Amino acid sequence: MASALRAAILGHVRVPVVVANGSKLLAPLWTHRTTAVRSMSSHDDHLEKNQVIDRILDIVKSFPKVDPSKVTPEVHFQKDLGLDSLDNVEIIMAIEEEFKLEIPDKEADKIDSCALAIEYVYNHPMAS
Amino acid sequence: MATPSRTEIISLFRSLLRSARQFPDYNIREYTKRRTIDSFRHNKTLSDPSSIAAAFSDGQSQLQVARRQSVVYSLYAPKIKSIMDVKP
Questions:
Q1: Given 2.30.30.240, 3.30.70.360, 1.10.1200.10, 3.30.70.20, which CATH number is that of A49-123?
Q2: What is the rounded distance in angstroms from the CA atom of residue A64 to the CA atom of residue A58?
Q3: Closest-CA residue of chain A to B15
Q4: Do B17 and A85 touch (CB under 8 A)?
Q5: Any idea where the Complex 1 LYR protein domain is (chain B) (predicted)?
Q6: DSSP string, B9-76
Q7: Could you state, in order of their start, the residue ranges of all structural domains in chain B?
Q8: What DSSP line would sit under A41-92, residue for residue?
């Protein structure tokens, strides 16, 4: 039984022909390929949520008209912080600069609170 | 001349701030940004439709100037970065 199984397996397993010099050349190349870091992949260095929250809160707190003690991750720019639509645009532009993003006008118009800004930046694949 | 809508004004404001970013020279970049913000704040209380339209078209012509000048300034970009641009 065991010997029949062994014969059946060995019949299917192919032992590569080893050439003394050739294997030394090929082996390191192959292992290198499989373990190489995908440096251009956007998901390898994706931002942590805490990091995004901290950086956005810092931007909002450093805005001249804002009282830093009122800033929380859920704060609404116009209702809670007493900012106007121009300030809103300024904050979004500051966020763009901080995370090296380009937020389209349609999206930028919708972002009117810290919560939405954090969500947008966190879900953006190019944020850095 | 038709009175510009709120979204058009916000969009002009954003375009001006975006064009301000294009300047390679720190001083010009900050000036353009400051000038944009100050003049929009200055005209915030306008209520007369014709003066709103006049301010809007003035802003649009300033946007053209800023875009043109950012191209010109990029040809003569400063060789040394401003100390304000160097992050510790």
A1: 1.10.1200.10
A2: 12
A3: A105
A4: no
A5: 8-65
A6: HHHHHHHHHHHHHT-SSHHHHHHHHHHHHHHHHHTTT---HHHHHHHHHHHHHHHHHHHHHHHHHHHT
A7: 6-75
A8: -TTTTPPPHHHHHHHHHHHHHTSTTS-GGG--TT-BTTTTS---HHHHHHHH
Among A52, A66, A68, smallest CA distance to A123 is for: A52
pLDDT tens-digit profile of B34-65? 999 999 999 999 889 899 999 999 999 999 99
Per-residue tokens: A57: 């809160």
Residues 35-94 of A with CB under 8 A from B: 84-86, 89-90, 93
ipTM: 0.83
Task: Specify the DSSP element, H or E, that contains A97.
Answer: helix A85-99
